[in-house]
Amino acid sequence: MSDTRGDQPIEGGIAADRVERLTKTIRDQTFPNLKPRDSATLILIDRTESVPKVLLGRRHERHRFMPGKFVFPGGRIEPSDRQMATLSALHDRHVARLMTKVRHASATKAAGFALAAIRETYEETGLMLGVPSTAPIATPPGPWEAFAKAGIVPDLSAIHFIARAITPPKRPRRFDSRFFAADIAAIAQRADGFVGPDKELVELVWLPITEARRLDMPGITAIALEELQDRMASGMSYDHPAPLYRMLNKRFVREVL
Q: What angle (nearest 5°) sits at the alpha carbon of residue 88, between those of residues 121 and 117?
């Protein structure tokens, strides 16, 4: 079976189709097995027109990891992400799902995942998400200092948890990735110089979801877009489930968190 809740199988044509397509993207699994590294990514949604659009960036062709692919801004979790101050917390439903099947679970750890997605989005695109603040902002040393300098404090109530995916075993790099989404209304500041021929992302594009899926992107990126469409159809309901995609017995499975 391709879709499970705990150890119990769940039938579903859409879910089965998604995991089948993901399974077909599996490549060489002959590398030494690595522990997946926690990472987070953010899907920005522009709903100012009748057809919603999402933001994707094209990775540099010289990157060893996914060269030339279109991806969402994102990257590894840093220890400082758990230390950054926020205006509001993540919704309890998101926290609960983020902490399912996680060691040393805590609300602080869940917030760190979302904050990493916000930080990486700024570092890769120059888009700073949050709310202007005139009060001092408690900021750990490092990249978060840019938020304090700009007077912007992250607001996690504007962030939605969409899906989680773990890279299959024996790949050269493995990530335990959390996919988040936010509306462009959450963007408090935009800066130039973060995207270009000598940067991690060489270009940014805003496209309707159906068009975006036609780009050259990793399989899980396309699946995350479909999961986002499902959540948008629910009105971004907090009751809408978030799935975990991982490999089991040489095939992907989809577990509902």
A: 20
Bridge partners, 41 (sequence order): 74, 179
Residue 25 placed within a domain: no
Residue 1 to residues 74, 191, 254, Cα–Cα distance (Å) = 31, 46, 9
What is the domain extent for residue 191? Answer: 31-246
Predicted confidence (pLDDT) per residue in 77-132, tens digit: 999 999 999 999 999 999 999 999 999 999 999 999 999 999 999 999 999 999 99
Q: 57: domain CATH number?
A: 3.90.79.10
The strand pairing partners of 43, in sequence order, are 181
Strands (E), the chain: 3-5, 8-9, 37-46, 53-59, 70-71, 74-76, 127-129, 131-132, 152-153, 160-166, 175-183, 187-190, 201-208, 243-248, 251-256
Give CA 182 to chain center in angstroms.
Answer: 10
> Where residue 198 falls among pLDDT bands split at 50, 70, 90?
confident
For residue 206, is pLDDT > 70?
yes
**Which residue do the tokens 């109530």 mark?**
157
Task: Identify the CA nearest to 127 among candidates 154, 104, 101.
Answer: 154
Q: What share of the chain is helix, strand, coil (3-state, %, to 5)?
A: 30, 30, 40
A 10 A CB-CB count for 10 gives: 15
CA distance 161 to 182: 9
Contact present, 58 and 70 (Cβ < 8 Å): yes
Per-residue tokens: 43: 């899907």
